[in-house]
Amino acid sequence: MAGAAPSAFAGIELMPHRAIYDMELGQADDDAGIAGLSGRMVYEFTGGACEGYSVSFRFVTELSSAEGGVRVTDLQTTSFEEPSGKGYQFLTKTFIDRQLAEETRGRAEHANGGVEVELKKPSEKTVDLRNKVLFPTQHLQALLAAAEKGDAVFVADVFDGSETGEKVYYTTSIIGQQRKGAGKPQEDAEAAVSKLDGLTHWPVTISYFEDDTDAGGEKTPVYQLGFLLYQNGVSRRLVLDYGEFKIRGHLVELEPLEPADCARAN
Predict the structure, then answer these.
(1) What stretches of the chain show up as alpha helix (H) in DSSP?
(2) For the whole model, what pTM was predicted?
(3) Entry's InterPro entries (predicted)?
(4) What is the pLDDT of residue 5?
């Protein structure tokens, strides 16, 4: 499925939206050295199949160590996925205590059975990835297509431009049984969850591996992401599992945005 054609996702309609999540420490092992964590994540998804998809993402956390220190991490990402998934432009900046610690900028394109990446940051170079990868929105659409078919497992190679812009994640997604309606808000905001009424959703856990030989489940993933995934692409009840600690995200605001005008785009 990792090499699936974009046309395979033609029936998957994603809702442009802005979602805000409050983040908190779920649990932490004693060895993790974490006393507390709080933060906020803002995710904005716009565009459409006719003009491409844009994502603006910001994730700010304040982490308190067991020794009494405090570190603020600010991850900022903007990306544009071209129509039919042809190309993917990305910019990621990571600030630690307000100082720029890492910046990645470039464009990736499906070519010659793999992906060619033209990097501008952290250094100018061309990288050829042998993998038939999916870009992030392609991956989301493919995951939804698998869920709607009733598949319990979905495996795909994903490129999102993270870290140095040369990494491919080998992912295995476990898809739970289909559920009708928005579901109980639990710790999410009731007003935000109410905007998902009438939609189908699935509990999903994605494991991210750094080596394709690990994706069979024999080794420990780099991290796991759990969430409820709705048929329009919105997610809530987030759990980021890094092994020694977990971060939970609660949906506090959900704002549907204007869909792309395909007539204008053409």
Answers:
(1) 136-149, 190-193, 262-265
(2) 0.90
(3) EipB-like
(4) 42
